[in-house]
Structures are given as structure tokens and as C-alpha cells.
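Our consortium's second objective concerns turning raw sequence data into structural hypotheses that experimental partners can test. To show how far this objective has progressed, the report includes one record in full. It was chosen at random from the queue rather than selected for favorable results. The single chain below, 101 residues long, was entered without modification.
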Amino acid sequence: MGSAGTYTCKHCGYSAEWVTADFDFGFSGDVVTPIACPHDGIRQVETGLNAQDPDWRERRLEAYACPVCRERRRLWDRKTCPLCGQPSMDEDESDGFATWD
């Protein structure tokens, strides 16, 4: 089962909802991960990997295409705001925590 939360930038107020953990997967095994796009914010991307494959961890990449602009973007570091560039993103625990499958 995967998990997701909301992150908010303390500097500019940008907020991203339903952000999964790094290389997270649900029951089907399809692996998703968040990337940081300066134009489209934090986006979930389907990696094309499946956790049921024994070597999926070795095949992870450092960057994936943004699903909106299609530009190759690096994985999100869970701190840097993709819009203002400040290391001021925090998980908003008041918004709750979701699990998905």
C-alpha cells in the first residue's frame, strides 16, 4: 500500500497535494515517484517500473519526464520548492495522511 501527503512552501505558499513517497507503489506494484518541475510544480510520474520485478530498484532513474510539459525533470528532494527554489517545503500534517492501493 502506498502513502501520500500534502506539502506546503513556507516561503511562497505553493502547496502540492497527494505527493507520494519516493518510488512508492500500491498493490499492483506499479511504481510512482514525485518530480520537481519549475513550470508545473511537484508532479507524480509513472516510472514504468513494477515492484514485482526483482531488479526494479537497480533500474530507477534520477530524472523522469513531467507528465504536463514532457520535459525531463529531477526527482524531488522533499525540501526545495519547485516554484521559488527555496528549501522551505514541509509536510502539512494537519491535512492528514492518505494511503492508496
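The partners drew two points from this record. The chain has a mean pLDDT of 89. The chain has one domain: 2-90. Both points have been shared with the crystallography group to help prioritize constructs.
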